[in-house]
Amino acid sequence: MNTLIQKLWKMRGGVHPAFHKDDSTRQPIQHTAIPPQLIIPLQQHVGHLPDLKVAIGDTVEKGQMLASVSAVGIGAAIHAPTSGVITSIEERTIPHPSGLAGSCIVLDSDGKDDWGNQRLAPLADYRECAADELLQRIEQAGVVGLGGAVFPSEVKLASAGEGNVETLIINGAECEPYISCDDMLMRERAEEVIVGIDILMHLLKAKRCLIGVEDNKPEAIAALNSALETLGAAGNAGHGQIEADQGSNTQLSGDSSDSASLAIQTVSPIASAPRIEVVAVPTMYPSGDAKQLTRILTGIEIPKGVRSPSLGLLCHNVGTAYSIYEAVVAGKPLISRITTVTGNGIQSPQNFEALIGTPFSFLVEQAGGYTDKAERLIMGGPMMGIALPSDGLPVVKACNCILISSRDELRLNDHDPADDERLVMPCIRCGKCMQACPVKLLPQQMYWHARARDFEKVAEHNLSDCIECGACSYVCPSHIPLVDYFRFAKTEMKAQQQAAIKSSQSRERHEFHEFRKAREKAEREEKRRKQKEALQKKKAAAADGKAGEGDSKQDAIKAAMERAKAKKAALKAAAKNKQDNSDAV
Amino acid sequence: MQFDTRITSLVNDAPDISQLMKQVLYALIPAVATLLYFYGWGVLINLVLAVVFALALEGIALWVRGKPVKPFLKDFSAIVTACLFALTLPPLISWWLILVGLFFAIIVAKHLYGGIGYNPFNPAMIAYAVLIVSFPLQMSQWPGAYSVTGEWLSLSDSLSIVFGQMDADWDAITRATPLDEVRTGLITGQSYQDIVAGDHFGWLSGVAWQWTSLAYLLGGLYLIKARVISWQIPVSVLAGLAGVAALMWLVDSSIYASPLFHLFSGATMLGAFFIATDPVSASTTPFGQLVYGASIGFFIYVIRTWGVYPDSVAFAVLIMNMAVPMIDYYTQPKVFGDSGRAVHGKR
Amino acid sequence: MLMAILVMVGLAAFFGALLGYAAIKFKVEGDPITDQIDQLLPQTQCGQCSYPGCRPYAEAIAKGEIGINHCPPGGDSTIQALADLLDVEPLPLDEEAGEHSDVPLVAIIREETCIGCTLCIQACPVDAIVGAAKLMHTVIADECTGCELCLPPCPVDCIDMIPVPQSTDNWVWPEPATLGKIPIKIEVKA
Ligand code: SF4
Ligand code: SF4
């Protein structure tokens, strides 16, 4: 139905890794069983740690809010993915490249998966709702950007403002190798995605929407187009008003496939369908980076420090659009996500609708277990993912893929000294990295300065613009782990910045300390001087004939000093064993 | 289950250094064949000796510096340096000159600066420059092309000459190179047109040189196609040279050689495609490469025309090597989304 | 030959002029030297340099009264930075001043032992300890500079120095070259 021909702009740089997506798209998305125990990290998003709403020992229902958006700043709420008992709230290793621990809620499920009355009221007639109400719902449901940024969606949408966004860009490019969760989502739940987009368009008052999908996903493109057709046709025919099946909420609870079964028939036709267009973009990593996709689709390069709504643009991931659909129309908070479990270390690679907090090992079991090639565990794809130490870690909102594979299949460059072939050689300045960099950086120069720890120079070469896509490392003939140097330089620079802030604060505090000491001293002296003066006056007065009074005053002072001495002695006694020769004062 | 997290960069199946270097060697094949055809065994002897010496010196240098020898020897970079150097030498040159040259290339120009990736100057050109300054006579004894002299020296005779067992009758076998001939001709007042009317001049430059140059051009185009080198440097070198040459030629075509002659004489093509493009010592930003290449072209012309050496590619490249850090600094590309921001962080 | 020399000389003059121009154009407006030195000092305010705080030490260096190598918390990197700034030779750290610790430290008060004597509060150069007489004291970890000045006055030795705890906020991605798997040493071209 969309005959508009969308002009595409060419991406600069980029690479063509082996995509390996077929392995995990052979089977439909599976709903997992309910794991016996869920580990739910509190920090799963950009922003502040949310405020805990439950305590150890509490029994929670499915969808119950466990932690709410922090009172001090932006963040996202966390909900119970299933019903059960909170058995502990403690520090556990979280899926983070540092391997450090973070606070987690441990939830022992009761197997009932009981919503109770926690399901949010469906807003099936969302087009009648004010933007504020929808935003509030999105916030309430803990929706964050599922493309990898995990930025709170409500904040992003609210700061865009109503009517500022002309073109909404929906990112379905999914350019990273191995990952197929967005692909499967678009294939199987295209209508829901479109409804989610309609909600976004309504909320932003966007004029049009471009859905960018890489052309290696023809099924997804076809599914989206046919969904647009069905929903749009329904809209044109003008029948089938909203029939939100409110009553079905509770009946649905307990059914793990609730989100899918609260299907599209409850949704009204989509009037905005003609303004939504699915655009196939050429397959090229990293076309799925938001700024890159924006440029490919619109030709607009968003400069650093400029917010895209000020250029009339906003980009959201398809997964986020789907979660928004679930939050608004199905009243379901973000308690599960589609995760690809793949790699040659997995018996039967596939996609799961996994509850947040599900241990990786549980998903692996559902995917038939490990093969003997299971050597490395990576969360995310091979280009940008992070290597994790254990399969006991939980699925978080950012977890789009669990890649378990052998070192050789991924051609990991782990610098095994025995491996001549992948030895890191010096940079020969061949410029391949520069040609591959989509942001037009000079990785070879940044690398040079980062190694010399000359971070000022690194910053001058615009390190902060690096999207850490790894295209440069991928092409480097010397096998230099460039992107790791950049991550190192970025975190190190941040640490140095923090140290600089702290030292300037210390300087100020020290100055204040000195000032305070000086002031106190001055005050003391002033006081003493006054006392002296008063005394002299009195003495003079006494000399005038009122003898005796001064003595009594002096006695009083003596007594006070004695008291002070006694106090000191007491202090000293308290510090009994201490061999401090000096006076306690 | 526990997993190893010892991963730095995740995937990499791009060609590595040795593959790039091998492609450079493949690209040299046509030129080597042409040279063999015109100059006989001497060319091959140069190449073989240079490769052997280079590998030995590289191995020693790595061992002394405590570096892993095998992987670095396997990167083929020493072989490429050796071949490029050998191809700039006159055939039948004494073996020890090759050794001396490579000592400067591998030990001084490369390893004293920190080995591959750290050499600010092109090693092969350092070697050439050292030899031509120290041994100008030997370095300009180019035998005449076989097609001109009609004399084909046997392998054993060639070897004997190279190893000093037999004294060559240099006067009989050497011929001035076309570049020399043009220069001396012009100095003695002949017009350029008269000089190139000589029998061993072809339609571009000297017969042997023009075909060799074409062979280098062919190899160079392959390198660009295979993305081993970028087009910026060769194109700008040739354009820079041709530009100045054309200008001067237009001023007076009887005392200045034609641009075509310059493009297809001496080491122009070798320099443009194989030497100026040595990534380590060249500029690395796209715009910087244009500046770098054009300047090399300019200096090739200037030194050729007004200098005293038989060819000037080496000096031109070395001069510009010195300017690379500065060129790179001032030619950073604008980053994505950046249309007006100052690139140096200083505003 | 003459030409070659001329070209070289001309080139040298050209690049010299360019560099000179760049030096003028990109010249940074300088702070007074004391401020610049103070900026480089770690602001631990520990007094190990024998001056009462970083600023006085900076003033003393600026006046040339004392060397640049008396700041143990800053260690070699601070000495190097000062050497660069003042264009002098970097010296090894003066061992008499104290030892450099690579891990940043923070003070922590064992609260059950604390007797609330307020002595540490008076010693802290940045007022990072809170508490009142006879009440338990606490160190504000974010503000503690790790100067250790509060240790000696404590009559009950209840203050410990511990490494600053690592969190995902202050974690630094390991430098690939330090993973020990790469056979190439860092070589910095001068
Ligand atoms: S690709 Fe690797 S070797 Fe080539 S310039 Fe970049 S960092 Fe250096
Ligand atoms: S990781 Fe950074 S420097 Fe490397 S290609 Fe991507 S954006 Fe460019």
UniProtKB/TrEMBL annotation, chain A:
<dbReference type="Pfam" id="PF13237">
    <property type="entry name" value="Fer4_10"/>
</dbReference>
<comment type="subunit">
    <text>The complex is composed of six subunits: RnfA, RnfB, RnfC, RnfD, RnfE and RnfG.</text>
</comment>
<dbReference type="GO" id="GO:0051539">
    <property type="term" value="F:4 iron, 4 sulfur cluster binding"/>
</dbReference>
<keyword id="KW-0472">Membrane</keyword>
<feature type="compositionally biased region" description="Basic and acidic residues">
    <location>
        <begin position="546"/>
        <end position="564"/>
    </location>
</feature>
<comment type="function">
    <text>Part of a membrane-bound complex that couples electron transfer with translocation of ions across the membrane.</text>
</comment>
<dbReference type="InterPro" id="IPR017900">
    <property type="entry name" value="4Fe4S_Fe_S_CS"/>
</dbReference>
<keyword id="KW-0479">Metal-binding</keyword>
<feature type="binding site">
    <location>
        <position position="472"/>
    </location>
    <ligand>
        <name>[4Fe-4S] cluster 2</name>
    </ligand>
</feature>
<dbReference type="InterPro" id="IPR037225">
    <property type="entry name" value="Nuo51_FMN-bd_sf"/>
</dbReference>
<comment type="similarity">
    <text>Belongs to the 4Fe4S bacterial-type ferredoxin family. RnfC subfamily.</text>
</comment>
<keyword id="KW-1278">Translocase</keyword>
<dbReference type="Pfam" id="PF10531">
    <property type="entry name" value="SLBB"/>
</dbReference>
<feature type="binding site">
    <location>
        <position position="433"/>
    </location>
    <ligand>
        <name>[4Fe-4S] cluster 1</name>
    </ligand>
</feature>
<keyword id="KW-0004">4Fe-4S</keyword>
From TrEMBL, chain B:
<feature type="transmembrane region" description="Helical">
    <location>
        <begin position="201"/>
        <end position="224"/>
    </location>
</feature>
<feature type="transmembrane region" description="Helical">
    <location>
        <begin position="313"/>
        <end position="331"/>
    </location>
</feature>
<keyword id="KW-0997">Cell inner membrane</keyword>
<keyword id="KW-0472">Membrane</keyword>
<keyword id="KW-0813">Transport</keyword>
<dbReference type="GO" id="GO:0005886">
    <property type="term" value="C:plasma membrane"/>
</dbReference>
<feature type="transmembrane region" description="Helical">
    <location>
        <begin position="287"/>
        <end position="307"/>
    </location>
</feature>
<keyword id="KW-1003">Cell membrane</keyword>
<dbReference type="InterPro" id="IPR004338">
    <property type="entry name" value="NqrB/RnfD"/>
</dbReference>
<keyword id="KW-0285">Flavoprotein</keyword>
<keyword id="KW-1133">Transmembrane helix</keyword>
<dbReference type="GO" id="GO:0055085">
    <property type="term" value="P:transmembrane transport"/>
</dbReference>
<feature type="transmembrane region" description="Helical">
    <location>
        <begin position="125"/>
        <end position="144"/>
    </location>
</feature>
<feature type="modified residue" description="FMN phosphoryl threonine">
    <location>
        <position position="177"/>
    </location>
</feature>
<comment type="function">
    <text>Part of a membrane-bound complex that couples electron transfer with translocation of ions across the membrane.</text>
</comment>
From TrEMBL, chain C:
<keyword id="KW-0479">Metal-binding</keyword>
<keyword id="KW-0249">Electron transport</keyword>
<keyword id="KW-0411">Iron-sulfur</keyword>
<feature type="domain" description="4Fe-4S ferredoxin-type">
    <location>
        <begin position="135"/>
        <end position="164"/>
    </location>
</feature>
<comment type="similarity">
    <text>Belongs to the 4Fe4S bacterial-type ferredoxin family. RnfB subfamily.</text>
</comment>
<dbReference type="InterPro" id="IPR010207">
    <property type="entry name" value="Elect_transpt_cplx_RnfB/RsxB"/>
</dbReference>
<dbReference type="GO" id="GO:0005886">
    <property type="term" value="C:plasma membrane"/>
</dbReference>
<dbReference type="InterPro" id="IPR007202">
    <property type="entry name" value="4Fe-4S_dom"/>
</dbReference>
<dbReference type="InterPro" id="IPR017896">
    <property type="entry name" value="4Fe4S_Fe-S-bd"/>
</dbReference>
<dbReference type="GO" id="GO:0046872">
    <property type="term" value="F:metal ion binding"/>
</dbReference>
<dbReference type="InterPro" id="IPR016463">
    <property type="entry name" value="RnfB/RsxB_Proteobac"/>
</dbReference>
<dbReference type="Pfam" id="PF14697">
    <property type="entry name" value="Fer4_21"/>
</dbReference>
<dbReference type="GO" id="GO:0022900">
    <property type="term" value="P:electron transport chain"/>
</dbReference>
<keyword id="KW-0408">Iron</keyword>
<feature type="binding site">
    <location>
        <position position="71"/>
    </location>
    <ligand>
        <name>[4Fe-4S] cluster 1</name>
    </ligand>
</feature>
